[in-house]
Amino acid sequence: MNDTTIALVTGANKGIGKETARQLAALGHTVLLGSRDLERGRAAARELDGDVRVLALDVTDDSSVAAAAAVVADQFGRLDVLVNNAGIALGWAVPSATSLDDVRGTYAVNVFGLVAVTNAMLPLLRRSAAGRIVNVSSDLGSLTRQQDPASPYYGQLPLVAYSSSKTAVNGITVAYAQELAAAGITVNAVNPGYCATDLNGHSGQLSAAEGARVVVRAAQVAADGPTGAFFTDGGTLPW
Ligand SMILES: NC(=O)c1ccc[n+]([C@@H]2O[C@H](COP(=O)([O-])OP(=O)(O)OC[C@H]3O[C@@H](n4cnc5c(N)ncnc54)[C@H](OP(=O)(O)O)[C@@H]3O)[C@@H](O)[C@H]2O)c1
């Protein structure tokens, strides 16, 4: 078996995903740069060093997800790291003014897409000596933080679409972590922090590269854990 780590990052043509791909490639991993648009993916890959290969993957499209899994199976026969990074944030309004379309659209990518990709890639992750799943969540998804008056977001957020979608990601993380512990596959959620990306009009204080660091750390946890955790820079977050 080829012992190079095979890592797939969804939504890796820009932002935190692209920087995660860059950092994983710098570790010597073979990186599958997931992109729903091949040209955007190729443009990103050209900016990265190392073994980076573009993989067409729209997480909301079942046939695209199945085709991506088939490509990984054909070319590598296994997957070692899955980073569920693709995400969007529709509906920046108070809950009562948020449209159902924005909730559905956000969940389609952040929640249903994540589950679809995870399930499609799981047979390949089970063939890894140490499979790792990293779900890119957000501190906005922490119910504990949402109700903490000391939180910087208290009173302005949560967003009914985005924040609750990340709460769902957290719940999904715990569920898969429990199921997959016996298979030796770790499943963790991460909060990259408030990064300047297209998602937030580049209003974040951190760079996408800084945000990617915790993603990469979670992609390298030991085979025997931790799993079912919610990592942030320098520690863990409450659910
Ligand atoms: N930025 C922050 O402050 C922050 C904080 C906490 C968590 N996060 C999370 O970090 C992750 C990355 O966000 P980002 O800030 O880097 O945002 P971004 O720059 O907007 O990147 C989002 C990525 O997701 C992709 N994507 C969207 N819909 C997709 C689909 N249907 N299938 C596949 N890929 C799709 C985008 O592709 P296209 O270019 O084709 O649209 C893009 O590559 C998200 O899960 C986000 O919720 C971000």
UniProtKB/TrEMBL annotation:
Query: Could you confirm whether the keyword Repressor appears in this record?
Result: no
Please report the organism this UniProt entry assigns to the protein. Answer: Jiangella ureilytica
Q: Identify the PANTHER family for this entry.
A: (+)-NEOMENTHOL DEHYDROGENASE, SHORT-CHAIN DEHYDROGENASE_REDUCTASE
Q: Which family does it belong to?
A: Belongs to the short-chain dehydrogenases/reductases (SDR) family.
Which keywords accompany this UniProt record?
NADP, Oxidoreductase
NADP keyword on record: yes
Any one GO molecular function term: oxidoreductase activity
Cross-referenced Pfam families, in alphabetical order?
Answer: adh_short
- Return the protein name: SDR family NAD(P)-dependent oxidoreductase
Q: Known Gene3D superfamilies for this protein? A: NAD(P)-binding Rossmann-like Domain
Q: Which InterPro entries match?
A: NAD(P)-bd_dom_sf (IPR036291), Sc_DH/Rdtase_CS (IPR020904), SDR_fam (IPR002347)
